[in-house]
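>> received
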Amino acid sequence: MPSLDPTVASILDTRPTRDDSDEDELLDSLENDPALESFREQRIQQLHEEFTRAKHLRNQDHGEYSEIKDEKSLMDIVNTGAKLCVVHFFKSDFHTCAIMDGHLRRLAPLHFDTRFLGINVENAPFLVTKLKVQVLPCIIAFRKGVSIDRIIGFEGLGSSEDTFSTKDLERRLVRSGALVREKLTDGQDSLVNDMRSRLSQANDEEDDDWN
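>> returned
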């Protein structure tokens, strides 16, 4: 894929698309934008192409965090269905997994190029053994079916949900190549406080060794 013009990337990242009318609305809003004067035709065309690509990917379940119920379906997506995948191996009654789920749900709508997937370890005995998943939450990122990053618990992010943010997770995944570029602004990153409020009654836990 050609390198995305920085100006086009900035527009797309700060004005995320939600429906088919967004492209026309965005171009209309730019008519009175002084920055439009510096736009070459190439930039306008690239903006249009990115909108089209985003719609195509959204129709293939990109842009959302999806729970996969069986490991064969997960393997099909990782190996042949999507170039980039971030997979969360979780257990539904683990507090730390719920925290990680929240961060992934926040990132998924911003990063159309990557599939965000989750699977309960109880539904994936073969993959759990093959990939040596022992501590939860466990995030494994794939490119064309090959593992490119693994996050065990909150390793490399912080020691608990209080010490890392969605932005920290995004930066880690960008560095490993699982995400194309950083899109979440510091001002948008309010997820941790929201999660603390909703889960304030839950017991604090360390990384969960479930085996």
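>> DSSP finds eight helices and seven strands in the chain.
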